[in-house]
Amino acid sequence: MPLGFVRPEQTPASASATEGARCVRPGDRICDVHELEDGGRGVRFMLAAAGGLRTAFVVRHAGQVYGYLNECAHRALELDWVEGEFFDTHREFLICAAHGARYDPVSGACIDGACAGRGLAGLPLEISGDEVRLARDLSVLRRPADRTLDTASMQK
Ligand code: FES
After folding, report:
1. pLDDT tens string for the chain (156 positions)?
2. Quick check: CB of 17 below 6 Å from ligand 1?
3. Model pTM greater than 0.70?
4. Can you tell me the distance from the alpha carbon of 1 to that of 96, in angstroms, rounded to the nearest whole number?
5. Could you tell me how far CA 15 lies from the centroid of its own chain?
6. Which candidate in 22, 31, 85, 119 could, as Cys together with 109 as Cys, close a disulfide (CB 3.0–4.6 Å)?
7. Does any domain span residue 53?
8. Based on the structure, what is the number of domains in the chain?
9. How far apart are CA 94 and CA 4, in angstroms?
């Protein structure tokens, strides 16, 4: 288990945490920047695309906002160990509660652990003033390493 992961009693956020999450479509507002604690609690939401829903999140790191699908590259489980908590105890890397894979919050790339060189699927965001929106065009999804996402089907 990587250094910084010291909450072994925690389990990934449950499906019940997803039930109350807000549904966001391309171009929709996700939250305000000031709602995101730098290196701390993020905002979860449901991404509505391709006729289905997938969980996603935004976090703030070093003053910048980043968004990802909430799917670990190891087994596609949600990362957060408590709803909205994605950072390790050093507030440096994103960490998966299931088996401790760690990711760079800037690129989504795997740092170490079970993600084994793969990364998180990044979401394109638009920041306007204090407002964080999901971009209208999801075809520019960032794809670190071999983590791929079918953006064509998501735009339908
Ligand atoms: S599912 Fe995330 S590390 Fe295994």
Report:
1. 343 333 333 445 544 455 567 899 999 999 999 999 999 999 999 998 766 789 999 999 999 999 999 999 999 899 998 999 999 999 999 999 999 999 999 999 999 999 988 999 999 999 999 999 999 988 766 555 444 444 444 444
2. no
3. yes
4. 11
5. 16
6. 119
7. yes
8. 1
9. 11
